């Protein structure tokens, strides 16, 4: 029988994982997969999403492939700290829709020993880095870049193509408003 010295098991360690990519690349699907595995391990998991994202549900994070997990809607980013005090794992979907204070909150959560997993768009529909995701990528211990499939040619896609006319940077939508494109077939409307 193997005996473990409990002092050699890491205690109060935390880290930040980022799942970034374009729309339809499986970011939320991967976030849900990781969070479900944490739940199977009997860890206390808290899941958050921004108030602006009510595309599929106001009570769950939902992937485009209709996988879902119950979540808490956040109006004030600082509420994540208060609501996560007893958690082991914190999941954040659509991180690009939170203000820049989300970074400091995630750093505090990780410093307090929590595993933080944030998923979000790395670029907007113009191909411009989507704040605060570039900063998330810089501070994360683990980064996963997801790719979709270009609807024009079938090549790997890392761009989000807006299909409707709007100059607004934030326009919440799904396949009615966006599609995945490769660099060759992406254009700014």
Secondary structure topology:
Elements: E1 15-21, H1 27-40, E2 45-50, E3 60-62, E4 68-70, E5 72-74, H2 79-83, E6 89-92, H3 101-111, E7 115-121, H4 133-139, E8 142-146, E9 148-149, E10 156-157, E11 159-162, E12 178-181
Parallel strand pairs: 1-7, 1-8, 2-5, 2-6, 6-7
Antiparallel strand pairs: 3-4, 9-10, 11-12
Short description:
The chain has helices at residues 27-40, 79-83, 101-111, 133-139; strands at 15-21, 45-50, 60-62, 68-70, 72-74, 89-92, 115-121, 142-146, 148-149, 156-157, 159-162, 178-181. The protein is of the alpha/beta class and 189 residues long.
Describe this protein's structure.
- By secondary structure, this protein is α/β, with parallel strands linked by helices.
- It has a single domain (12-146), classed as 3-Layer(aba) Sandwich (Rossmann fold).
- Helix content is 20%, strand content 26%.
- It has 4 helices and 12 strands, in the order E-H-E-E-E-E-H-E-H-E-H-E-E-E-E-E.
- The strands form 4 sheets. The chain has a 6-stranded parallel β-sheet, with helices on both faces. A two-stranded antiparallel ribbon has the order 3-4.
- A hairpin with a 5-residue loop joins strand 3 and strand 4 (68-70).
- It is globular.
Order of helices and strands: EHEEEEHEHEHEEEEE
The tally of helices reads 4
Backbone structural class? alpha/beta
**Hey, roughly how much beta strand do the residues contain?**
25-35%
Rough outline: globular
Number of strands: 12
Whole-Å distance between the termini? 65 Å
Low-confidence stretches: none
Name the CATH homologous superfamily: P-loop containing nucleotide triphosphate hydrolases
- What name does the CATH topology carry? Rossmann fold
Give a quick account of the main beta sheet: strands, pairing sense, barrel closure: 6 strands, parallel
């Amino acid at each position: 029988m193997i005996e473990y010295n409990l002092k050699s098991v890491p205690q109060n360690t935390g880290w930040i994982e980022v799942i970034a990519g374009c729309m339809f690349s499986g970011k939320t699907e991967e976030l849900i997969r990781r969070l479900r595995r944490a739940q199977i391990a009997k860890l206390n998991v808290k899941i958050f999403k921004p108030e602006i994202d009510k595309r599929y549900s106001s009570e769950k994070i939902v992937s485009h492939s209709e996988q879902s997990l119950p979540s808490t809607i956040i109006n004030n980013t600082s509420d994540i700290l208060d609501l996560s005090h007893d958690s082991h794992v914190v999941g954040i979907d659509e991180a690009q829709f939170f203000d820049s204070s989300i970074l400091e909150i995630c750093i505090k959560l990780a410093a307090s020993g929590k595993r933080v997993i944030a998923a979000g768009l790395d670029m907007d529909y113009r191909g411009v880095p989507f704040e605060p995701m570039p900063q998330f990528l810089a501070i994360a211990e683990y980064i996963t870049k997801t790719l979709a499939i270009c609807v024009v040619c079938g090549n790997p896609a890392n761009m989000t193509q807006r299909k409707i006319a709007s100059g607004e940077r934030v326009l919440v939508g799904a396949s009615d408003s966006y599609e995945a494109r490769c660099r060759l077939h992406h254009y700014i409307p």
